[in-house]
Amino acid sequence: MRHTELRARLEAVLGREASSWSKLFVITELGSRTVEEALEDGVPPKQVWAAVWRVLELPESAR
Fold first, then answer.
1. CA gap 3, 8 in Å, rounded
2. Could you list the residue range(s) of the whole structural domain that residue 27 is in?
3. How many C-beta atoms surround the C-beta of residue 2 within 10 A?
4. Of the candidates 4, 5, 55, 60, which lies 20 to 30 Å from 19 by C-alpha distance?
5. Is the sign of the CA dihedral 9, 5, 36, 52 positive or negative?
């Protein structure tokens, strides 16, 4: 998964709030980092999306 695909998925789920949410919402599974911090630290987008998917309790179809 590329960064652009991750961002597109976030926008599909969170709408216009995706960018703010990615910068502000801390996810424990990502080492108590936000999505943006995790990506900046080199966490693969696929791993980030998996954590987002779990924390938002998205349906299996969004996996």
1. 9
2. 3-58
3. 9
4. 60
5. positive
Got the DSSP string for 1-59? Answer: --HHHHHHHHHHHHGGGHHHHHHH--BGGGTSB-HHHHHHTT--HHHHHHHHHHHTT--
Whether 63 is covered by a domain: the verdict is no
Cβ atoms of residues 45 and 35 within 8 Å: no
Separation between Cα atoms, residue 38 and residue 34, nearest integer Å: 6
**At residue 57, what is the residue type?**
E
Residue 23 lies in a domain: yes
Q: Give me the number of domains the chain comprises.
A: 1
pLDDT at 59: 86
Q: Mind listing the pLDDT tens digit for each residue in 1-39?
A: 999 999 999 999 999 999 999 999 999 999 999 999 999
